[in-house]
């Protein structure tokens, strides 16, 4: 699994991501996606983009999924389809950012389900920020069970 991050999670990128994620500034998704495109364009493109799912209650509270917004823009710019409903988050978990690193794997275990047939597909998971990698690793396990043969992780920023 290859991970590509356009930025390190630090100022000013962290402020832009937070404006999107917590402030509802959907216009911020455009510049973030543009930069991510520049980071992945040299790779062989996947067959499908899968945005990191949010638990339904969190999605209802926020009103949008920032990973979906970024993935839709990437899909248009790269001409790669985005599977908006292929995977779901089926278990409400504590926010990973609120937990010590050693508790993140157990917190997210079994949190995702996927109903799409991904047999033979090369898939890119799209997310805004990656910290420990526990969340993308858990989603990747779910995608492999559905037949995905190659998984990439595309994130706007990586915490160090």
Overall description:
With 160 residues, the chain is α/β, with parallel strands linked by helices. 38% of the residues lie in helices and 22% in strands. The strands form 2 sheets. It has a 4-stranded parallel β-sheet with strand order 1-6-5-2, with helices on both faces. A two-stranded antiparallel ribbon has the order 3-4. The longest helix is centred in the middle third of the chain and has 13 residues, at 66-78. The two termini are 19 Å apart.
Task: Characterize this entry briefly.
The chain is α/β, with parallel strands linked by helices and 160 residues long.
Q: What is the terminal-to-terminal distance?
A: 19 Å
Q: Write the H/E string, N to C.
A: EHHEHHEHEEHE
What's the oligomerization state? single chain
Q: How do the strands of the widest beta sheet line up side by side?
A: 1-6-5-2
Low-confidence stretches: none
Structural class: alpha/beta
Overall pLDDT confidence: 93
Main sheet characteristics = 4 strands, parallel
Number of helices: 6
The count of β-strands is 6
The helix content is 25-40%
- The proportion of residues in beta strands is 15-25%
| Approximate shape | globular
Gyration radius, rounded: 14 Å
């Amino acid at each position: 699994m290859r991970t590509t991050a356009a930025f390190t999670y630090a100022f000013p990128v962290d402020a832009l991501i937070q404006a999107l994620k917590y402030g509802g500034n959907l216009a911020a998704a455009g510049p973030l996606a543009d930069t991510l495109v520049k980071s992945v364009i040299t790779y062989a493109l996947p067959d499908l983009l899968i945005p990191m799912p949010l638990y339904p209650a969190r999605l209802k509270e926020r009103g949008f999924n920032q990973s979906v917004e970024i993935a839709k823009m990437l899909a248009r710019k790269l001409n790669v389809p985005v599977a908006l409903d292929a995977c779901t988050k089926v278990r409400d978990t504590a926010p990973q950012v609120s937990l010590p690193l050693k508790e993140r794997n157990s917190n997210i275990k079994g949190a995702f389900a996927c109903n799409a047939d991904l047999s033979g597909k090369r898939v890119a998971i799209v997310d805004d920020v990656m910290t420990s990698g526990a969340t993308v690793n858990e989603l990747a396990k779910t995608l492999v069970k559905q037949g995905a043969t190659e998984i990439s992780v595309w994130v706007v920023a990586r915490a160090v």
